[in-house]
Specification:
CATH architecture: Roll
Radius of gyration: 17 Å
Mean pLDDT: 96
CATH class: Alpha Beta
Low-confidence stretches: none
Strand content: 35-45%
Helix content: 25-40%
Largest sheet: 6 strands, antiparallel
Length: 150
Amino acid sequence: MRVFASVDEFAGTVGEHLGYTEWRTVTQDQVNLFADATEDHQWIHVDLERAARGPFGAPIAHGYLTLSLIPVLSKELYRVENVSMGINYGLNKVRFPQPVKVGSKIRGGAEVAEVTDVPGGKQVVARWTIEIDGEAKPACVAETVARYVS
């Protein structure tokens, strides 16, 4: 894990790849809980028998579930100290090139793409790639926008 002493130190990493998280397994329990939380119970996610006969050969995680793991992955990758708070400000762009089959291992990698001044702090755009172990295409590519308040 990279630890930055301040948001200014973090801002000095524009263009730098921050590394990769550990691999983690996506479970059916996670998918089911996400389906319950979002009320998206489409069979490709939660019906194990039908999904096994479907286009992916297994149940798959919701794309938004994969995306929603970025905050927890970021805690494993880096930390910015001496800020009063960091907030999720949104996304610039998101794609899901490859579905994540339940039981697959994923990991995240991030690059600091842009840092700009905002009232009270800095806005950071990070380019995330969520990889699937053994797959050529990533599960998710996303530009996240966070604000760090001094």
